[in-house]
């Protein structure tokens, strides 16, 4: 057994270094504690933000020890990786990917008690949404290839380091599915329909639900959730993005995980306590926390 109070909520995926959260981090973390959070996983999206996520985690721990704040009951960990949106920055040169992955590897090796996974990485073929890809002049096949190279390199790294992978997949399930047996980890901000979910359930991966599970239009996603045993479910905010229904349009923060937990509980017909307990246990297991 571990030292966590297991009924506390866990936000398995947040980006605490983006402007709106970083600038008022003390308040954001106080809110998180006040709303019953026990663990936050702070997820990097490129080399710089991965370093920043680790720095924030170190800083939080130092301050927590210094001043006996109420934040002592909160644990923060980091993951480090390169988001598919960055694929456009590695259009052809394999060596540039390798240089950056070496930097991530060093970051992990120097901070092994804080860094608990690689990611987020993956495939995001919703190219119109991303200025870098729109302006790149690459044809669609090249855009896809650039992301797949970057993703494949991180799969190699995660297996070398024996860590879990945090996977982002948007509009790319056909290409993503064949990769899913090559690593352990989490499908973050899950967006698979019931047909895809059937295939995902054949793997060992955990499946993380974000604020979009609370959106009225997303019955199709709630149908997928119904199919997935709670032992495989994680919850996340993806802060500062994707605020849940009652806060839509506002910057998201980890405290809002409660609304995600409530909706998951409702869909599953169980208590919020049970969702908190099991999803926290799942995070401890997949990220090997306190091991
Ligand atoms: Zn994210």
From TrEMBL:
Keyword Transferase among record annotations: no
Annotated positions binding a divalent metal cation 1: 13, 15, 120, 238
Key words of the record: Hydrolase, Metal-binding
Sites where the protein binds a divalent metal cation 2: 168, 188
Domain of life assignment: Bacteria
Example of a GO MF term: DNA nuclease activity
Example of a GO cellular component annotation carried by this entry: cytosol
Gene3D superfamilies: Metal-dependent hydrolases
InterPro entries found in the cross-reference section: Metal_Hydrolase, TatD-like, TatD/YcfH-like
Designated name of the protein: Hydrolase TatD
The organism of origin for this protein: Candidatus Daviesbacteria bacterium RIFCSPHIGHO2_02_FULL_43_12
């Amino acid at each position: 057994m571990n030292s966590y109070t297991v009924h506390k909520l866990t936000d398995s995926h947040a980006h605490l270094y983006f402007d709106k959260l970083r600038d008022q981090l003390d308040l954001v973390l106080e809110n998180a504690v006040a709303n019953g959070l026990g663990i936050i996983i702070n997820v990097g999206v490129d080399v710089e933000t991965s370093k920043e996520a680790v720095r924030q985690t170190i800083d939080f721990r130092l301050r927590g020890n210094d001043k006996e704040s109420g934040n002592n009951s909160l644990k923060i960990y980091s993951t480090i990786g390169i988001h598919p949106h960055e694929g456009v920055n590695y259009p052809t040169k394999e060596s540039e990917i390798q240089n950056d992955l070496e930097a991530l590897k060093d970051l992990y090796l120097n901070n092994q008690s804080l860094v608990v996974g690689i990611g987020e990485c993956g495939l995001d073929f919703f190219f119109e949404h991303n200025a870098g890809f729109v302006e790149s002049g690459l044809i669609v096949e090249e855009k896809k290839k650039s992301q797949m190279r970057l993703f494949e390199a991180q799969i190699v790294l995660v297996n070398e380091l024996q860590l879990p992978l945090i996977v982002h997949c948007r509009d790319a399930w056909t290409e993503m599915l064949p990769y899913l047996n090559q690593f352990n980890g989490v499908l973050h901000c899950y967006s698979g329909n019931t047909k895809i979910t059937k295939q995902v359930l054949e793997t060992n991966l955990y499946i993380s639900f974000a604020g979009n599970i609370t959106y009225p239009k997303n019955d199709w996603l709630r149908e997928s959730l119904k199919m997935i045993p709670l032992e495989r479910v994680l919850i996340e905010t993806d802060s500062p993005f994707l605020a849940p229904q009652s806060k839509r349009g506002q910057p998201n923060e980890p405290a809002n995980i409660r609304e995600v937990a409530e909706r998951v509980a409702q869909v599953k017909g169980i208590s919020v306590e049970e969702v908190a307990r099991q999803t926290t246990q799942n995070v401890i297991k997949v990220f090997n926390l306190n091991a």
